[in-house]
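Lab notebook, bench 4. Still working through the backlog of constructs that have no structural model yet. Next entry is a single chain of 130 residues. Request: give me the C-alpha cells for it.
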Amino acid sequence: MNKYEVVYIIDPAVEDEARKELIAKFNDLITGNGGSVDKVEEWGKRRLAYAIDYKTEGYYVLVNFQAEAELPKELERNLQISDSVIRYQVIKQIERKVGIKPRAVRPAPVAPAAEAAEAPAEAPAETPAE
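Model written out:
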C-alpha cells in the first residue's frame, strides 16, 4: 500500500452538518475501497490566495491515508463531481530510507584566474618607442 495525502477545500456556505457528512463520505470512500485513513485534520475556514467562483474563503481539510494505486483516481473523480468542493489535490508521499547518508560535497576547485588575482601584480614590461 502507498501513503497519500489529500487536501480539499469545501465551500464555506455549506452548513456544519452537511460539511461533516461530506468529510465522512470521503473517508468512507477511502475505507470502502480497501484503504485506511490515518489522520484527518480540519484546518477550518481560511482565506483563499485568490478568488474562486467569487469566493474568497474556504474550509480546508487534510486527510492522510494508505491505499492501493487505483484509489486516488477514484477519490479525485468523486471530489471533482461534488458541488461543495472548490479545489482538491492528492499527493503520494515519498518514503525516505533511514540510514542512507547524503553524499559528501567536495570543495570547488580553485580556478587559475582566482590564483592569479591573489598573486601580487607584476609591473608591465615597457615597449620600446619608435
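Notes after review: The chain has three helices and four strands. The CA atoms of residues 67 and 120 lie 67 Å apart. Flag for follow-up if needed.
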